[in-house]
Amino acid sequence: MSASETRPLNVLCLATYFKGGDFIRECKRLGCNVILITKEKILNEDWPRDSLDDLIAVPNDAGPALLIDLAAFIAAKAKPDRVVALEEFDVMTAALIREHFCLPGMNSSMAKTFRDKLAMAVRAKVAGLDVPEFVPLINLDDIRKFMERVPPPWIIKPRSDVSAIGIRKVGGPEEVWRAIDEFKERENLRERASYYLLAQFIAGEVFHVDSIVNDGRVVFAGANRYGRPPLEVAHQGGAYISRTVAHRSEDEKTLFAINRQLIKALGLERGATHAEFIKSDADGRFYFLEIAARVGGAYIADVLEAASGLNLWREWARIEVGQKPDRRGGPSSGRQEQLAGAGEKLDREEGLGGNRLKPLRNDYGGIVLSLAKQEVPDTSAYDDPEIVYRVKKHHHAGLIVRSRKLERVEQLLNDYSRRFMNDFSAILPPLEKAE
């Protein structure tokens, strides 16, 4: 019997941003030794220190080489058995550390697919998904042909950033050539034109599907719809909204089907995913936008937990350490009162270890979230009984609601969105790159 089978598993977590507390707690609850490497700027955040065996901060500009060397230093006394990226920007570094130690999990080639919007678009198109027309900003003839073939407006977006960071909408060829000239002048080589895509702009509603994957199968998924496209919120301000898609609706069935098709095509064996799709106003079809190998941000996991009773972070942790899914939902983190999201019930043969990872309930959840002009916004005037969580973050106002009726969730979110504009909302210029 190997040493790793007779001692607690050593789980090394990477987090460039403050998230993943429930993952850390669950790993510790399951008996693992947990070490977290984070950045100096977030060292003093409310990490679950009682569940960490070590907490190490590296300089904010630390690159993969430094983290690999630090992992090797840690491994001299406690070799990691699992390396987990809790945040999008750590996915590639975690893969490089796994390769350095020949550990199981996603390698750097697969990690690149989940980080590079060009690579994922190519793979999705080959797999038969509908994908907006696209071209990398590399070959000038290819760019010209794209602009002749695909009518504007178009979207210019970085191949490796998250959310709406660095994305701009352009109305014609002149703007495209100006952007390319601008990229050429950038000092950072990874911010130049070849690291960008030009893509067809499709008007429509944006949806996201958040999943837990084990043995290459989706064992749980929840589908939500954004109130307004994230790009529009980033550029125009206002409240961000996401809410559960109607259970057993055609939209939900279609989203679950193409999400499974996508994950199978990308070859992910285990972990969490956050995929985004847009339903075209023109033809009613769902088009793939992007996918990430992580739990969705902006409190998406909390909305899913509000509706279904399942916590994506905890279920992911159980899969990482080789446990069967907790069909009872596991202990509450205390962060919120029995949160959870809409769940996809899979057939028994598709579940983990022969079991279904099924939701504890099939309610509806939603969130309204906004930048706030106040440092600590007071949401006490919002007192509907459906409120299950109040966001606690400086200069942010946010509420998560749950109801057995989708119509009630929509009514509350629409009402709160209007009230937030008067009570809290602040607008900042959209980010060109992650901070």
What keywords describe this structure?
D-amino Acid Aminotransferase, Chain A, domain 1; 4-stranded parallel sheet; globular; 13 helices; 435 residues; 8-stranded antiparallel sheet; Rossmann fold; 16 strands; Dna Ligase, domain 1
Can you walk through the features of this model?
The chain is α+β, with helices and mostly antiparallel strands and 435 residues long. The protein has three domains: 3-106, Rossmann fold (3-Layer(aba) Sandwich), CATH 3.40.50; 133-200, 2-Layer Sandwich (Dna Ligase, domain 1); 204-423, ATP-grasp fold, B domain (D-amino Acid Aminotransferase, Chain A, domain 1, 2-Layer Sandwich), CATH 3.30.470. The protein is 31% helix and 23% strand. It is built from 13 helices and 16 strands. A hairpin with a 5-residue loop joins strand 15 (387-390) and strand 16 (396-403). The protein is globular and about 60 Å long. The protein starts with a helix and ends in a 12-residue tail after the last helix. Mean pLDDT is 89; it is low at 324-355.
